[in-house]
Amino acid sequence: MDDKELLERIEALGADEIDALRRLPAKIVPKVCEPDAALAVELGLPFVGGDVFTDGSIGSRTAALAQPYADAPTCGALRFRDDELEAFFADADRLGVAAGVHAIGDAAIDQCVAAWERVLNGKPSARGARHFIEHFECARPEHIEACARMNLHLSMQPLFDAQWGGAGGMYETRLGTARMRGMNALASIVRAGAVLCGGDDAPVCPLDPLAGMRACVEHHEATERLTPHDALAAYTVNAARLAYAETRTGNLAPGLAADLVVLDRDPFEDGFGDCTVLETWSDWRVVYRT
Ligand SMILES: [Zn+2]
Question: Where residue 12 falls among pLDDT bands split at 50, 70, 90?
Fold first, then answer.
């Protein structure tokens, strides 16, 4: 199935609840947070999962690590057996549904990437499904290479680095300096050619894409800082790709919806942090004005 056929198929699907969500003024892309691809098909959704937990979090020392935490004798824990995760992914890919899971620790990311390697035979989905991994915080270089190769989209939260990265931060306390420095490897992901999508995991981080873009360009680890252009792409064109929406939104081009904000200054000159939104446009209409 090529991209066009897949988009037509998504357009043709629909269910009352999902349609109701789609009629809200914000552009919402709902996902069913269950490892059940058939249910997603029934509901007319092209995605399944998202925050289906394969592990926990760094803060609660429940993210699954290959080596113990720096401040407690535990490695966290995986929540799925290998065969369970593989069955979920295989089902989703067979149905052409994009599947995603929450994977934070390196052991969880390892399990997730290894399951995709088996299901996809190391290549992008033959059905064009844009499978994805949420968080991807403790990824190693080989995980990044594998995700780029299999076109696994990486749905990440740059504000995690702003909140927990750097000397004396929560990541360093829980993981030590060496592991802390490899986390949220945004620029490595862009360099590898993987699709990086910016998000906020609200309410863990504030719903503030400008703050997220600022976190991208001000990453605590200098080698992982994004250019303003790549930061903007993560929150716009790449996020639209994750939603199969790039032919409708995510960019300013003829034929696409006028979904945009008017800022009081140029973020490419002055940074994203000090910008004020003057207007927000959605579908060719002003929906917010200061
Ligand atoms: Zn999560």
Answer: low
Report the alpha-carbon distance of residue 69 to residue 225 in Å, rounded: 26
In angstroms, what is the span from residue 134 Cα to ligand 1's centroid?
6
What is the whole-number distance in angstroms between the Cα of residue 266 and the centre of ligand 1?
A: 32
- Into how many domains does the chain fold? 1
Q: How far is the CA of 59 from the centre of ligand 1 (A)?
A: 12
Q: How far is the CA of 57 from the centre of ligand 1 (A)?
A: 8
Look at residue 282 and tell me if it is in a domain.
Answer: no
Q: Which of 109, 229, 213, 239 is nearest to 161 (CA)?
A: 213
17 pLDDT higher than 70: no
Its domain, for residue 123, covers 3-255
List 102's β-bridge partners, or say none: 53, 134
CA–centroid distance, 76 to ligand 1, in Å, is: 15
**Cα(54) to centroid(ligand 1), Å:** 9
| Predicted TM-score of the model (pTM) | 0.91
How far does residue 16's CA lie from ligand 1's centre (Å)? 27
Average pLDDT estimate for 169-192: 98
Q: The CATH number of the domain where 243 resides is what?
A: 3.20.20.140
Q: Work out the percent of the chain whose per-residue pLDDT is above 90.
A: 84
Strands across the sheet containing 196-198: 47-53, 98-103, 132-135, 153-156, 196-198
| Residue 281 within a domain | no
Band of the pLDDT at 7, cuts 50, 70, 90? very low
